[in-house]
Design a protein that fits this description.
heterodimer; A: mainly alpha; about 5% strand; B: mainly alpha; ABC transporter involved in vitamin B12 uptake, BtuC
Chain lengths: ~290, ~300
């Protein structure tokens, strides 16, 4: 029974981790930029959901439709105005740049929302389902379904739409894509915008389950790191595999060694993976 | 020895005269300045000379702080604890470096970030030795007089800075420094001509860690209380990078000036905009990278004049 519960928890959490990591992975893969502000984007999305619910009574699953376009504009603007200036610079410069963005964004959030933990509490509460002793809270189930839907939507966009194919083309070979008439700068901005949308939506889903505070942004960011390295950069399936694997490791690790050591375990695994298999479980060159 | 190295030494020696000038606040600022310079100069060895974007400084700062703190708790004197902390940081960084420095670019950056997390979590859970999340109280080493205390720790930090400066200059004018700049420019080629790149990089990583460890040790003895979130703060990794970027990568003198300038800026921001200090820091980083990507040392008098005339 315990095993089944651990598995179910890992499944739910794993899909959310995938949702957190997928935008990060897209930006890393296509722009070759590690967006250290990704965690703050997620928290900002969570505050969006919290605020929409408490000010206007808009449920988080509808809030997605409002948060997503706003985040696209936000990400597109940041890419166009700031990141595009340094996109060709060495790793160190882009890393430090996004760290600066993160500091700025995080401080602004602390100023407006304070560092207190808040929780979005649905009223009336949605309760939980129980299958022969295995308990699944309904809000988690909703988050799971939405996370899968978002992931699938991104997959379809990259696979079927013209812009999506252009994004994949830029990732595969930027110069060849330029020669084929793809406007790389605008593709970069669109990819960063989509990355921001995925972060914002992941934040909305996180708000359904976990308490929100600007201080947790680092935790989300490190999860995104680990998932990307475990699953491998550059594919939706890789992020999904990485997310599920991380959640499973954390879940099983918590049961076996206690919750405190589970984080250490995942980081040790991260370093081992980086050294032994840097391309991850399902890493490959194309993003699809 | 180059002229810029000479200026660097003179600058460090001038700093030693600070206690003549001011009270406890000035000395605190001076100690912070010396600490920042140690961190920035050390980072420059791996980040500037060898070109590896390391975020691991916080890991070794914390390691040094905890090593010293625990040793002081066992009544080991400070002058012995600090070299032990430095040696331990050097050994650990050298060993880890041999593995991690095979990674490049983003992957190395992430691995070095993860190192900070791993060490923090380990310290957090080794409650018997480190006190875990409750932190570690460290016995008072200097006298109880405030001024004597401030002066003692200022000179302790300054001494570490002096050793760091001498070591960094020695590295940059030696075979090791030459090898590191070869690695930065083209690692495969330097391997081809018979350079033991793994050894060179490991030594560079070790050197960039050991003085940071010693600085962490002095810091721990100075503040008398440390906890994992304080000394394993990722900002200890990022600030040296920003300082080096302000000054200009690779040049020791530039990095040191960058560190001092950054500290002045930070102090001004702290005093006036306490609510927004990290936002101002973030905005500063962004502006710096957009408008002055190669640091202050890239500005030459003549070039500046020409620009002003042109504008």
């Amino acid at each position: 029974m315990l095993a089944a519960q651990v598995l179910i928890n890992a499944l739910v959490l794993g899909c959310l981790y995938a949702c957190i990591a997928i935008g990060f992975s897209l930006v890393w893969g296509v722009l070759n930029v590690i967006n250290l502000a990704h965690g703050s984007f997620i928290v900002l999305g969570a505050y969006g959901a919290w605020w929409l619910y408490h000010a206007f009574g808009i449920a988080p699953w509808y809030a997605l439709a409002i948060v997503a376009p706003l985040f696209f504009v936000f990400g597109y603007a940041i890419q166009r105005s700031i990141l595009n200036q340094v996109i060709a610079a060495p790793v160190l410069v882009t890393l430090t740049m996004t760290f600066g963005l993160d500091l700025l964004l995080n401080n602004v959030m602390i100023y407006f929302f304070t560092a207190d933990f808040r929780k979005l509490t649905l009223s009336p509460p949605v309760g939980s389902l129980s299958f022969g002793g295995v308990v699944v809270p309904v809000d988690r189930l909703i988050a799971l379904v939405l996370a899968l839907a978002l992931t699938f939507a991104l997959y379809v966009i990259l696979r079927r739409s013209r812009t999506g194919r252009a994004i994949v083309a830029v990732r595969l070979d930027r110069d060849a894509a330029t020669l084929m008439g793809v406007d790389v700068k605008s593709i970069y901005a669109i990819a960063f915008g989509i990355g921001a949308v995925m972060a914002g939506c992941a934040g909305v889903l996180m708000a359904l389950i976990f308490p929100i505070s600007p201080l947790v942004s680092t935790a989300y960011l490190t999860k995104a790191f680990v998932v990307c390295v475990l699953g491998g950069l550059g594919s939706v399936s890789g992020a999904l595999a990485g997310g599920l694997l991380l959640a499973l490791i954390e879940g099983v690790g918590s049961v076996l060694f206690g919750p405190a050591l589970a984080t250490t375990l995942s980081f040790v695994l991260l370093i081992v993976f980086l050294v032994v298999r840097p391309q991850g479980l399902m890493g490959r060159k194309g993003f699809e | 020895m180059k002229r810029s190295d000479l200026i660097l030494i003179v600058l460090v020696l001038c700093l030693a005269a600070l206690p003549l000038a001011g009270g406890a606040y000035t000395l605190r600022l001076g100690t912070m300045a010396a600490m920042s310079c140690i961190l920035a100069l050390s980072w420059n060895v791996i980040g500037g000379f060898a070109g590896y974007p390391s975020f691991a400084a916080a890991a070794f700062f914390g390691l040094g702080a905890y090593t010293t703190g625990i040793l002081l708790g066992y009544k080991v004197p400070l002058w012995l604890s600090l070299p032990i902390a430095a040696g331990l940081s050097f050994a650990l960084a050298g060993l880890l470096g041999a593995v991690l420095l095979r990674l490049r670019g983003h992957y190395f950056a992430i691995a070095s970030l993860a190192l900070v997390e791993v060490l923090r979590e380990i310290v957090n859970h080794a409650t018997d030795l480190t006190g875990g999340g409750m932190g570690l109280n460290i016995p008072v080493t200097a006298g109880t007089d405030i001024m004597a205390d401030a002066r003692f720790f200022f000179y302790a930090m300054w001494l570490v800075l002096l050793v760091t400066t001498i070591a960094v200059i020695a590295v940059s004018s030696s075979r090791l420094g030459f090898g590191l700049s070869c690695i930065r420019q083209n690692e495969a080629a330097s391997q081809m001509v018979g350079l033991n790149t793994t050894l060179y990089k490991s030594i560079a990583f070790g050197l960039s860690a050991c003085f940071v460890g010693a600085a962490g040790g002095v810091y721990a003895a100075w503040v008398h209380y440390i906890d994992p979130t304080d000394v394993f703060d990722i900002l200890y990794s990022v600030k040296p990078i920003v300082m080096a970027l302000i000054g200009g990568l690779g040049s020791s003198l530039g990095v040191m000036i960058g560190a001092l300038l950054y500290l002045v800026l930070e102090e001004v921001v702290w005093r006036n905009y306490i609510q927004f200090h990290s936002a101002v820091l973030g905005a500063l980083i962004i502006a710096l990278l957009l408008f002055l990507p190669h640091g202050l040392t890239s500005l030459r008098g003549g070039l500046l004049l020409r620009r002003l005339r042109g504008a």
